[in-house]
């Protein structure tokens, strides 16, 4: 069975995705309490403060992988090609003072790209991706102390807010805009 849920259609009928999924499971004769028990037994969900909680910490990537394998129709090879092109732009080795590689693996980078495309319906070309990465790296003028790893440049969850952020998407969306010289204010001092 293949199910597609379109946000625009849900909005048209004023149905929240949670309601739609619950309704579908009910219509299929599923026992929600039994599903909760199975998720907990399999380590995919947990009970917090006596209540069924959401996804077990660390299992979010598994859920994303399962959903992406179901919903992304673009050729897998394309994501791997873009991932390899981005990896070629980022520095070699590990970020100083950390145990993390700048580039990570092609598979991880491809998954981040798929997640970005799927979550935000964000279209970009391989050329745009490479230009964005080069521009991002150049903005550090050789001092990479505060530069993000490639996977976080593409997509990162803000630990304080839980919101997703993408400098990669921002660079592509704002491509061609001139950067203001932040030191320009000094020339106007009397």
Averaging pLDDT over every residue, what do you get? 83
Number of helices: 9
Task: Sketch the major β-sheet.
Answer: 2 strands, antiparallel
Ranges where pLDDT stays below 50 over 5 or more residues in a row are 184-190
Distance between the termini: 72 Å
Question: What count of domains describes the coordinates?
Answer: 2
CA-atom Rg in angstroms: 21 Å
Q: What share of the residues lie within helices?
A: 40-55%
* Strand adjacency order, main sheet: 1-2
Q: What is the number of E strands?
A: 4
Report the sheet-strand fraction: 5-15%
The ordered H/E elements are HHHEEHHHHHEEH
Structural class category: mainly alpha
Shape: globular
Description:
This protein is mainly α and 190 residues long. The protein has 2 domains: 7-55, no CATH class; 72-173, no CATH class. Helices cover 49% and strands 7% of the residues. The protein is built from 9 helices and 4 strands. It has helices at residues 7-12, 17-27, 32-41, 60-71, 76-89, 106-120, 126-138, 150-154, 167-173, and strands spanning 45-48, 51-55, 156-157, 164-165. A two-stranded antiparallel ribbon has the order 1-2. The chain has a two-stranded antiparallel sheet with strand order 3-4. Strand 1 and strand 2 (51-55) form a beta hairpin. Helix 5 (76-89) runs parallel beside helix 7 (126-138). It is globular, with a radius of gyration of 21 Å. Mean pLDDT is 83; it is low at 184-190.
């Amino acid at each position: 069975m293949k199910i597609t849920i379109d946000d625009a259609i849900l909005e048209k009928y004023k149905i929240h995705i949670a309601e739609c999924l619950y309704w579908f499971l009910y219509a299929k004769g599923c026992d929600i309490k039994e599903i909760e028990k199975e998720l907990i037994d399999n380590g995919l969900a947990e009970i917090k403060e006596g209540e069924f909680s959401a996804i077990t910490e660390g299992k979010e990537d598994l859920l994303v992988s399962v959903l992406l394998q179901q919903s992304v129709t673009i050729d897998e090879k394309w994501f791997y090609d873009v991932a390899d092109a981005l990896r070629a732009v980022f520095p070699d080795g590990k970020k100083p003072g950390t145990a993390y590689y700048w580039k990570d693996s092609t598979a991880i980078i491809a998954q981040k790209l798929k997640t970005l495309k799927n979550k935000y319906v964000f279209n970009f070309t391989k050329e745009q991706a490479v230009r964005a990465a080069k521009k991002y790296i150049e903005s550090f003028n050789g001092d990479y102390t505060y530069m993000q790893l490639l996977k976080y440049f593409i997509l990162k969850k803000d630990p304080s807010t839980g919101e997703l952020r993408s400098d990669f998407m921002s660079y592509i969306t704002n491509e061609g805009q001139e950067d203001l010289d932040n030191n320009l204010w000094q020339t106007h001092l009397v």
